[in-house]
Amino acid sequence: MNPSAPPPPPASIPGTPADAILARLAARFSCREFDGSPIDRAEIEAILCDGVEAPSSCNHQNWHFIVVSEPELKLRARDISGGNLHFAHCSALIYLCFQKGWTHDKFSIVQSVAGACYHMMLSAHLRGYACIWNAGIGDTDALAAMLGVPGTFEIQGALAIGRPKPSAPKIKAPRRPPAETRSWNRFERPAHALYPARPAPAYPYWRIRNSDNPFAEWNPAAWGWDRIADFRGYAVWAKSPLAGVYRSRRQGDATTLEIATLPDLPDGAHLLEVMPWGGTYSTELRRRYGAGVHLHLAELSPHNHLFILERLRQEGLSGANVHAELFAAGRLPHADASIDAAFLPQVLEHMPETSTILAEVARVLKPGGIAVISARNSRSRYGLYYRRRLSREMVPNQGPFAPLPAATVRTRLAAHFAIVEEFGISLAAAGDATRVDGWLRRFARLYVARVAKSASR
What is the pTM for the complete model shown? Predict the structure, then answer.
C-alpha cells in the first residue's frame, strides 16, 4: 500500500448508522436563550478543531476565529450588536473572520468560513450544546477595535454557543418542502416561492445591500397574497418566539393606544385579529382580555400560528380559546355575524388590495360590532421618510408594505362602517407615539379609526 495515499472511505461508521446521525443533526435548532454557564475551554477548542475540518477555497484556510468568553467583552459585543441579547449570556461567542484579498470570486472565502461555521454548529450540537449563527453583529469597525482585528481581515459574523435555558423555545424553524428548493437539469420553482423584484436588464449582486437595494419591490400588489403568505411565514422565524420579541419602544407605546381603542369585551366574546404575524399585538390582546375571550388569529401561513402560540407560552399567557385560522386572498374563514370585535393594526398597507378584506370584516362582525383599524400614513413625515429612505432598503421580515393616505383609508372605511372615533399617532417620522386629534391627525404617522357595523348592514 502506498503510505502517502489516503485510506479508503469506510463503508459505514462502526456502531453508528448514518441515518441515526443525520436524524440527530436535523434536530438542531437555533437558540437565543442561554443559561450563562461556562463551557470548559478544552471543549470549545475541540469544537474549533472540528470546524477547521471543513473545506476551504483552494485550501488556503484564510479564516480566523476569535473566541470571546470574558463577561465584560460579551456585554460590549451585545451593545455593539444593537439587539442580540443572547451575546451576553452564551458561554462563548466566536467571531468568524477571513483575510481579505484571496479567492473573492463568487465569494469563495465567505463560503469557506460559512462551511467551517456550520461544522462547528454540528459539533456543538452533537456534544449537547445549543448555538446560533448571527450575521447581524453591528458595527464591525467597533468590533475590530475591541478585538484588535487588523484592517486586512473582515469580521463576517458570530457564532454563539452555550447551554439553553430550560424555558428556551425548542421549536425548529420550518423548512420548505423539498420540491420547492430543488429541480433537475433546469431551474424550476413554484410561483409563490419566487419573490418579485423591480424590472431591470440585470441584477448584479454587488449592487444590492440591506440598506440600499435598487431592485426591492415594496408594493404588496406586485407580490400577491400567496407570495406574501410564503415570505411572512418563513421570515417570522428570523427570531425565536421569545417574550417581547419584535417589540420596539415606539411600537409598544403606539400599541397601547391602538389596543385601548378597542371596546371592553365580556367572557365568551369573539375577538378577531387579522394578520398578526409575530404576535406582538396578540400577546397584548391576551393580557387585556384574558383567556375568557375567544381570540381568533387569522393568518396567511400556519408557520405564523406556531410562532405566536409558542410566544404566548413564553410570555406566560394562556393558549385557551386561541383559535389559529387561515385565510387566503382576503377571504376570512368565519361565519357571517360571528365576531364581536376585530383588530387590524397596521396591516392594510401589507395587503395586495384592501376592499375585499374590509368587506369581509364587515361581513363577519355582528351588528353593532366594533373594529379598530390603523394604517401608516403616506401623507406624513414618516411617509416622506418611507419614500426617500426606507423603501430603498431590503423588504423587511414582516413583508412588503406601502403606507396609505389617511384620507383614502377613511374613505374606504366609511364605505363599509360607521366611523365612531378617529385620531392620529405621532407627527414625527419615528421615535414618538403621541396621540394627535383634530385636523392634524391627517398628517400623523399612524391613522387610527374605531368603526362600527350598523344594524342595517
Answer: 0.91
